[in-house]
AVL9/DENND6 domain-containing protein
Amino acid sequence: QHHLLSDVTIRGFVAGATNILFRQQKHLSDAIVEIEEALVQVHDPDLRKVLNPTTADLRFADFLVKHVTENRDDVFLDGTGWEGGDEWIRAQFVSYLHALLAATVQPDSEKILSDFGTAFVAAWKNTHNYRVWNSNKYPALAEINAR
């Protein structure tokens, strides 16, 4: 199955693999995420530039970290409560992604798209994923404030 990993016509990804093959043969993967070491290694320099977080991305991450790590005196807000809890984090990512998607379909949204990374958005618009997503209409996106 090693040949499947290097076949460029296959769309897919591997997540959660601990196989040393991925560390030794870097051409088989775009990135390696080391959870224990809090490290993300992106092998391709061009891809690394596209994935570089913007100032808005860093603010979003700081916002999440601040709310997750705040000391809470209330026993009912110990990570299972709403703000800072799992569901709250998921809701923040959903809002973030909805704002990105809304910005891609709204006119004159260059400034907003730059918050998500102009290079990232341009690269995403060249993917199969974007073509599939863009082939459908999402009227509710017009009502989302992309800011």
Notes: The first strand starts at residue 31 and ends at 34. Residues 53-143 form one domain. Strands lie at 31-34, 39-42. The radius of gyration is 19 Å.
